[in-house]
Amino acid sequence: MDWISVKEARQAESSGKKVVIKGWVRTRRDSKAGFSFLEINDGSSQGNLQVVAEASLANYKEEVLKLGAGCSVSIEGEIRPSPAKGQPTELAASAILVHGWADPVTYPMQKKGHTFEFLRSQAHLRPRTNTFGAVMRVRNQIANSVHSFFQERGFLYLNTPIITASDCEGAGQMFRVSTLDPEKPPRTPEGPIDHARDFFGKQAFLTVSGQLEGETHACALGKIYTFGPTFRAENSNTARHLAEFWMIEPEAAFYTLEDNMDLAEAFLKRIFKDVLDKCGEDMDFFAERIDKTVRATLEGIASSAFERVTYTDAIAILEKSVQTFEFPVKWGLDLQSEHERYLTEKHFQKPVILTDYPRDIKAFYMRQNDDGKTVRAMDVLVPRVGEIIGGSQREERLDVLLERMRECHLPEEPYWWYLDLRRYGTVPHAGFGLGFERVVQFVTGMANIRDVIPFPRVPGWAEF
RNA sequence: UCCCCGAUAGCUCAACGGUAGAGCGAGCGGCUGUUAACCGCUAGGUUCUAGGUUCGAAUCCUAGUCGGGGAGCCA
In the structure, how far is the CA atom of residue A435 from the C1' atom of nucleotide B75, in angstroms? Predict the structure, then answer.
C-alpha cells in the first residue's frame, strides 16, 4: 500500500487509490450515526485530509474516540470523492494506528485562534498551525527561487565566513566570538585583555555581511551570491529586525549600478511570480486571514516596472508634497522611514529604487559619481516593509577608495586584502544585500518578522 | 536605546480601593455526512516579580522582567 502525502490525497485524481497517510490530527468530529471525522495534516499542504472512521474499526472505541488535536497517526484506507462540501476527497479508513497521544488538557495548540505573541512562546509547536505551516512552505519556496534564479544566470553559490576576525565590516554592532574565560581573561602586562591568547589569536566576531569577502570571489569567478546567516548585535526592537537573520548577497564583476538594478528587479519579480504560481493555496490563506491585499500586490509588482528615482529627485518630490513630515526633508540628510513610506506607498504606490545618495550618508566602499557629492548607491523600497534591498556599485579605483577611507578615518591595514582587489586587475563591480525574512514578510503579509523565521533571535530572547 | 500602552483561568479578555467573572478551549452528556459545528452541565486562579501605601490592593506608588505599537539603527 502506497504512503502518499495529504496534498496528493486531496487531489481528485487520487480517488479510488488504496493508500496510507501519516500525519497529525487537527480535529475530530463524532457522528452518533456511528462514525467520526478526523482531519489530518502532514505539512504537505495548507488543506487537511478528511478521514471517515467507521465504528467498525477495531480500535474505534478505545482509541479513535480519544483522538484530538496533536495526536500522530498512520491511516490506511481508500480515497474517494467526498459527498459533502469542503473537500474534494476523503479517506475511508480501514485501519488507524496511533503513534503518539497529545493530552488535550496540557497540549498548548488548542482548536482555536491563537495570538502570534502566544505562539512565539511555543515556537516548537507553532509549525503545526495553519499560519506557520503556510509561512514555512512559502519561505521554502522563496529559498528555492533564490537559488534557481541565480543558478540559471550563472551565479556561483559562495559560502563566506560566519566568523570574521576583521572588525572592519562597518555594517553594525557585532557579536564577539571568544573562548576566553569571561571571569578571568588573560591580560597583557599593561592590564587590557590579551586577545592574542584567544582562540583565533585576535578578536573575532560573527559576520554582519559577507559582502567584502564576496567581492574577492566576484573579482575572480565573475558572478557570485551568498545566502547565509547574518548577525547584528544592535538593540533593535521592531517588527522588521532580527539579531540573527538570513541574507542574500549577489556580487558581480563588470556590473554597473544599472546592471545591479536590473538584477534586483528581475530577482524580486521572479520570487513573487514563483510564489504565486506554486503556493496558491497558502497565498489564498494569507489573502483571507492575514492581509487581503497581498495577492494583488504581488501580481501588480510582478507585471510592472519598478520606479527608479535618484535621491536628489526624491528630495524634490518630498519637498513638493502636501504631506507634513515629522522629520525635515533636506538634501544631504538621510531619508526617514516616513519619507520612504510616502514614496513607495503613496506617491508611486509600487516598489521604488532610490539611487545616487549623498556620499556622506553612505558606506566608504560605494563608487563616487563625477559630481563629487553622490555615490552609486541603491535602496529598493517596497510598501509596508520599507527597505528590502540595499546595494551599490563598488569603488574600484584604488586612489579614490584610499582617499575616501582616510576621510572616514578607517585604518588601511585591516583592509589590505580588500585593497589588493583594486591593486591587481581591478574591475567595476556591483552587488546588493537582500534580507530574506523581509521578503518572506512582504510576500506573506505577516506583520512581524519574528513570525517568518522558525526561531527568532532578538534582544532578550533566544529560547529554543 | 527612546516615547506610549499592557501583563488576571490553558488562550483572549472583563472586574478600576471592598466576596475574581465571561467567551473560547478542555472533560462529561445530547444532537448531527460533520467540517471554526451546535445545545446543556462540570472542572479550572500564588491576578508577572520584588518592595511600598492602606483597616483592606488585580486595582494606587516605586523598581525590575517580559510583550505590543511607534521611533532610531538597518536587511
Answer: 4
